[in-house]
Amino acid sequence: MQTIFVQFKCHPGQAYDVADLVVRTLEETSEIYSTSGDYDLLAKFYLAKDADIGHFVTSKLQTIEGVKDTFTLVTFKAFS
Asked: I need a surface site. Which of 15, 46, 55, 79 has the fewest CB within 10 A?
């Protein structure tokens, strides 16, 4: 399992619509938050170990209506 975090910059007024669509349609979604700062949303995704992260982001996330830009963080190890 691969864990990635993706920040979304949305077109004005579209952040809640984008968040709703991501949660409803992408089974890889763990959670999504509205945020302040340079990006509007922060989402956590769990991908299969052999999944192509770049393809997931460019084909499933960046193509969502209302998304202007994304920033992806790939994680290595979770500490608890």
From this structure: 79
